[in-house]
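ugh finaly. both done.
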Amino acid sequence: MMTDNSNPDNVDATRKLGGEVIFHGPKFNDARNYAEELAVKNGYRYFHSANEPLLVAGVGTHTPELIESDPEIDAIIVPVGDESGSRGAAIVAETMSKDIKVIGAQSEMFPAAYKARKSGVHE
């Protein structure tokens, strides 16, 4: 499930990996809500992109490797999108060292997460 205005590179990559892309709505939550409806209707298991503890833990596994490879590290820059990566990195960094900052970065061409944070609405 993707928004009507999704990043074309993400759409292409999803299709190349064999995924079916269904577009729904202009905002992330529009697509997410529709995906949840389809999951209930069809008996599928819906995995939330930022609220699945095992998913967040899994994508955060790169962070201990970074910290162990350079104990003096003071910041980690992670891509921001669905937030599972940034959440995973932040949890691990805080657990291993209170002094490490996790900085989220997003494409200037597709700044949905940035705009949502800036407006106070996380969609």
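ok and the 2nd:
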Amino acid sequence: MDQSNNLITVAAAIILNEKGELLLVRKRGTLFYMQVGGKLENGEAPNQALIREIKEEIGLEATIIKSYGDFYTQAANEKGFDLKAYLYHVKIDGQPKLCSEIEEIIWINPSATQYINIAPLTLDIVFPLVRRELS
């Protein structure tokens, strides 16, 4: 987290099931559903951070299929901060389970009308990206 620039840098996973639904998680004590992923540790490459975060958050090994690059939006849970997110399409091995700070896991149709709190990265960038990929 870069306090001086109010910028948080993360790696985030786009994980789809066979129905084209997107895996989202809600971390303990937060309101917004978002991609599995998290902040990079010192000296850690985004792809390495993502594989580590997937294991920590949903208990699974994963393979990166594609990098979409980096995107900027507002942070969901840190008021006044912006977010730089490295997005990757990821294949997971197995069924996700609650681990670490994850309180809830859902699969959601990225084309459906949503009635839950969705993080800005997911709503504004990931949903449109996934819809384009699936069309």
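summary for the 2nd one i guess: The radius of gyration is 14 Å.
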